[in-house]
Amino acid sequence: MAALAASLMASAAAFLLIEARTARAASGESYRLARAEREAERALAIASVKLDAGETLPSHGEILLLPSGARVLRQDAAGLIDINAASPETLAQLLQGLGESRERAVALSDAIADWRDEDNLVRAHGGERDAYIDAGLAPPANRPFATEGELSAVVGVTPALLECALPFLTTYSGQVDIDAAAAPSELRALLSANTPTQASVGAPLGRVIALRAEAPLSEHASLARTIWVRLTGDPSRPLFIHRAEQSFAQANRFDCGAARS
Fold it and tell me: To bridge 180 with a disulfide, which of 90, 145, 197, 246 should be the other Cys (CB 3.0-4.6 Å)?
């Protein structure tokens, strides 16, 4: 009986030790998350003030770096491919640049166009209701994409392809062509020199701009908070926020460079 009691006490002590360690780990995770959220909010607030003040800032890339390691990246929507307005040819160019074969890039771009248009007519290489039923997917919405991530609903679009394409896509420019001056260098490299572009506009008034704050959680992961804002020119409400998203990113989650090689 004494041995049994000692064994039970040892088991209970081990359980309590594990529980205490788990609680400390959870408390540490909560603290790191709360700290990252505060830093992301602070970084976005500072970047928004800079934007509203009309400071000379690049139209894309890093515009703010805080001592904590948090940073803000800016990207004007005009420098991205609008998945609701771009031609299937431009979409195919992007997809082929991301590593898809010419045939698959054309098929995917036609499928994207079929998903967003209002009719049920199937493009040469696209897909409408029957193709989605065969794939076990919900039929195409036949409306504009509400967000860039909704591209995942298109038949044939894989998670890896979507992850690589998202940095170059928008639903806010409303332009068939991109503003090359506001485009990321990676996007300009992916699109051929024959891709039409429009002249850059000096002032961002009226444009939608994505501000992405990244705050480190650890050496392998970070918290990202993105807001899509528009400068209104109205002193009473200088910034209009279209939407906000929060996500977590792991270092080297997917090598898009390898997908293009």
Answer: 197
What pLDDT, on a 0 to 100 scale, did the predictor assign at position 2?
Answer: 60
> Strand, helix or coil at 29?
helix
Q: Is 220 exposed, middle or buried (0-12, 13-18, 19+ CB in 10 A)?
A: exposed
| β-pair partners for 212 | 73, 226
Residues 6+ apart with CB under 8 A from 261: 99
CA end-to-end distance (rounded Å), the chain: 69
Q: Position of tokens 């995770």?
A: 29
Strands 208-216 and 221-231: antiparallel
Helices (H), 56-212: 88-97, 102-116, 129-134, 159-165, 185-190
CA angle 8, 19, 251 (to 5 degrees): 140
Helix (H, G, I), strand (E, B) or coil at 121: coil
Global pTM value: 0.80
**DSSP label of 193:** T
51: nearest Cα among 183, 228, 225: 228
Task: Please state, in angstroms and as integers, the Cα–Cα distance from residue 39 to each residue in 82, 224, 239, following that order.
Answer: 30, 10, 20
Q: Which two tokens stand for residue 173?
A: 């420019």
Q: Give the model's pLDDT for residue 219.
A: 82
> Residue 98 has what DSSP assignment?
T
Phi, psi at residue 230, to the nearest 5°? Answer: -130, 130
pLDDT recorded at residue 216: 93
